[in-house]
Amino acid sequence: MLLPSIFGNDVFDDMMSFPRFDDFGDIDRKLYGKHADRVMKTDVREHDDSFEVDIDLPGFTKDEIEIGLRSGYLSVSAAKGLDKDNKDPQGKLIRQERYAGAMQRSYYVGKELTENDIKAKFENGVLSLYVPKKEPQKAIPETKRIAIE
């Protein structure tokens, strides 16, 4: 039988279990499944003329992060690879728990913005983005002249 799956977890896993209040501490795991550690934690603050977006990217460097703007969507991606060289002079690696992989998240910012409008700063594992508010350009309807006979 095929059952829906979200982030690799069965949707009906906890359906029949009795709800307990101690489950609230594990809300990220319940919401995002076993991939909760790969989700970019984001804070968005609204100001009169802009948005301020702070994204936690601990363990990443500035060179491992890419930001792009396409069709009104601001995409942030980060990729980290660990050395796979087994000829390490410090000894053979027997357990590896540090994160290696990639993550990406997109935010709709509107088609009016260009890449020059958005400012980014990365400091102490936090990517800070300044996204200005721009009103959509309203097209002024062109009046078509009708000839009089």
Terminal Cα separation, in Å? 73 Å
Based on Cα principal axes, name the global outline: elongated
Biggest sheet overview: 4 strands, antiparallel
Q: What is the average of the pLDDT values?
A: 78
Kindly state the number of beta strands. Answer: 9
**Secondary-structure arrangement, i.e. CATH architecture of the domain at 40-132:** Sandwich
Which strand order do you get reading across the main beta sheet?
Answer: 3-4-9-8
Q: How would you describe what is shown here?
A:
- With 149 residues, this protein is mainly beta.
- It contains one helix and nine strands; from the N terminus they run E-E-H-E-E-E-E-E-E-E.
- The strands form three sheets. The chain has a four-stranded antiparallel β-sheet with strand order 3-4-9-8, with no helix packed on it. It has a three-stranded antiparallel β-sheet with strand order 5-6-7, with no helix packed on it. A two-stranded antiparallel sheet has the order 1-2.
- The model has no long low-confidence stretch (mean pLDDT 78).
What is the gist of this entry?
With 149 residues, the chain is mainly β.
Write the layout of secondary structure elements.
Layout: E1 5-6, E2 9-10, H1 27-32, E3 42-46, E4 50-56, E5 65-70, E6 73-80, E7 101-108, E8 119-123, E9 126-132
Antiparallel strand pairs: 1-2, 3-4, 4-9, 5-6, 6-7, 8-9
Structural descriptors:
four-stranded antiparallel sheet; mainly beta; 149 residues
